[in-house]
Amino acid sequence: MNIEGWTNSSLISLLDGIKSGGTPNTSRSDFYGGEIPFVSIEDMSATRKYLQHTVKTLTKEGLKNSNTWLVPENSLLYSIYATLGLVRISKVTLATNQAILAMIVNPKVIDQEYLYYWLEYVRDSVINLSSQTTQSNLNATTVKTFIVQHPENKKEQEKIAEVLSTIDRTIAQTEAIIAKQQRIKTGLMQDLLTKGIDENGNIRSEDTHEFKDSAIGRIPVEWDVETIGKIASLQRGHDIREVEFITGNYPVIASSGVIGFHNIRTSDSPNVVVGRKGSIGNVYYLDVDFWAHDTSLYVTNFFGNNQKYIYYLFLYLELERFGTKSGSPSLNRSDIHPLKIALPKPLEQERISKILTQFDTSISNLKSSLKKLQYQKTGLMQDLLTGKVRVTNLLKEKAAAN
User: Fold this and answer.
1) What is the CATH number of the domain that holds 59?
2) Which one of 175, 237, 262, 269 is CB 3.0 to 4.6 Å from 292, fit for a cystine?
3) Is residue 330 within 8 Å of residue 323, measured between CB atoms?
């Protein structure tokens, strides 16, 4: 499709340089630990658009005695091995290993941020194309031949990148808020499940509340020490193959979560399910009746305890720690039932679970917003990076305002 004012260019024609890196001899300690950031795929995966920090660094000797090179600040970094098609913008001078191509953009013909988003946009296509060949990796020769669709007018390129950068910042801000909320929740769980809250809603402290010695350490005087088996009796789930599912309303809960639906239930709700085999230690709270799969454990008796509290307690205990270390790891109820825990009375359990549920609801809402933003970005990339929707009107409005 021909779009007025747009053209197709080979990637190499838009660059002043493109080159992969290399790895110095890993047995030479004097090659590592210097001041030169050394980028690997792990560093690319651990960051978003801009890359500044790396796990490993090189010395000048390491740089000199390898195939890597000093990549200028504000270059594009592009992964060509293993995790294909990741693209980042370097914010410092650095070196890369052989799994990463560094590209120096020619600013006279292409806006770097536009090219960044175009490479991000075509990533799925690059991965699909690579999977159809005998060589799953990319190389510089192949990447150079990529055909980039772009506006001829650099101001239009810049405006497209500006729109996409704006939604990227909103996505990053939302992710930061989610991460902060999750950190707060983790700290709050630690306090609530070890100290609890009094009738006034205050977290207990030994400075203001009475605590007592117990078999597992200091606990509030109102609490008791019990074993898991005495507060939530676990039972192994029931085997069923996918071909045996009969369409119904009851979710089949395996260690990895919902794997289908069946017309028969094995368990009532509310309930708590723990991954027994496969995804060991995963914990699920069920507010609908369900079929507990053989790869899971489910609670058959809560002994009057609050179900949601037991869910949070199991999350806090990180039950995966107690899985067997055999060739086929599993989590046995016989290893969980004897565990000693501190237990508040049911009314306090309810207060604690309500607080943590509020945090979960807030985080869930934020994740829904994040997903919508990500869908919106995908739609914008599809429209803006193909010329389907033009930003020329925005440019005219900006020119008129000036």
Assistant:
1) 3.90.220.20
2) 237
3) yes
The Cα 38–Cα 53 span in angstroms is 9
- In terms of domains, do 125 and 192 share one? no
Dump strand ranges (E) for 130-214. Answer: 147-151, 211-212
Tens-binned pLDDT, residue by residue, of the chain (402 aa): 578 999 999 999 999 999 999 999 999 999 999 999 999 999 999 999 999 999 999 999 999 999 999 999 999 999 999 889 999 999 999 999 999 999 999 999 999 999 999 999 999 999 887 776 655 788 899 999 999 999 999 999 999 999 999 999 999 999 999 999 999 999 999 999 999 999 999 999 999 999 999 999 999 999 999 999 999 999 999 999 999 999 999 999 999 999 999 999 999 999 999 999 999 999 999 999 999 999 999 999 999 999 999 999 999 999 999 988 777 889 999 999 999 999 999 999 999 999 999 999 999 999 999 999 999 999 999 999 999 998 877 666 655 565
User: Could you tell me the residue range of the domain that residue 135 belongs to?
Assistant: 8-150
How many domains, the chain? 2
The reply to whether 382 falls in a domain is no
Contact between 336 and 230 (Cβ < 8 Å): no
Both 343 and 199 in one domain: the answer is yes
Domain identity same for 191 and 291: yes
Same structural domain for residues 247 and 141? no
Predicted TM-score (pTM) of this structure: 0.85
